[in-house]
Amino acid sequence: MSSQLEQRLSAASTFLLQSPPGEVNDVFADVRTIVGDDAALESGILPALEQYNTEQFIVVDLEGDKVLITEASKLKGEVRHVDPKGQRTFAFDHMKVAASDPQPLEVDTETESIRSSIEKVLAAHVSNHYSEGASAVYALEDSNYPEPEPVVATPVEETKPEPEVEEAPVVEETAEEKTPAAEEEGEAKGVEEGEEEKPEADADADADAVDESKPIDSSTEEDKAKPMETTPAPAPAPAPPAPRPSRIFGLYFVGTKYNPSNYWTGKWRSVYVADFEKGTFEGKALVNVHYYEQGNVQLSTTLTSTSPLPSSTPTAESLIALLKSSESSFAAQLSDAYSGLSDEQFRGLRRALPRTRTKVDWAKIVNYRLSKELGGGAEA
After folding, report:
1. What is the pLDDT of residues 201-211, one digit of tens each?
2. Of 40, 128, 206, 328, which is the most buried if we count CB atoms within 10 A?
3. pTM
């Protein structure tokens, strides 16, 4: 990759990360023209796109449900994300902004009970107060509950089949007592009928006759003497790690309002972390507004708050009450900032008056200069 192309990709990534709310596709189309190489653009800009989607709390559809892409949703050491409400993980394509391949996720029962109760109350609050709102509550990593060691399945010992030993058929012989007269009579009878004694070779052949009803054993005596070889059992697959308890919960939600026909867009993102062990409830709101009618103005601000928890085991309702108080404080701060724009910030942008405290009459500037030049010429 040439250095010029690398510089273009770096600039494209910077522009993409500064995309106003809801306008990332427009920015991507513009930087695509700047780079001029689609293959290099897709591979080179992917890290910036992943960062943008994560920071902006992108909302995606997963089997009919709204799920958030956040830093807390990323599985540790994997490229998959978590949907805590559906108790599942999923793959996410940052280029196509599409979720796929949902898989079940095992969770700690007690932790999930607390998490789901908070999520239910938070979802109702977001639905009532934020346009196009979406929310999620995550059980964050808690150092008070160490990560369980991976469980390895116990290998099952393979039983060796015992060699089958054929038992020779037992022939029962009935001894009959024969008198000498009977023996002589039998021998005479055999000679008369032309019977001949079977040669010993024929007797041996009968003994070696093969019984076709039994399988043919092609093994030699040497092979039979060798110990039987057994196929080693496959290594046991590691069992999935046990679910990890937690008493730290992250409350994430986002509200968006896009009105491109009137040349403005806006997004409100909030993150709150409730730590039951420390007894703290820390919040942060990130507000972005873009207004571009006959100009181009962006507002980007971050508001923070910290509140103590009412108890070591707060209820979901008490947490949302603290959240409402913080959000009201954030809204009041923004209102004060807007009211001061015309009196302070915009006035500071105006041209300052001269020392005479009177406006300059620019129409007479030429006359002033002409008289000065004429006066100077007369002196000469």
Report:
1. 454 444 444 44
2. 40
3. 0.69
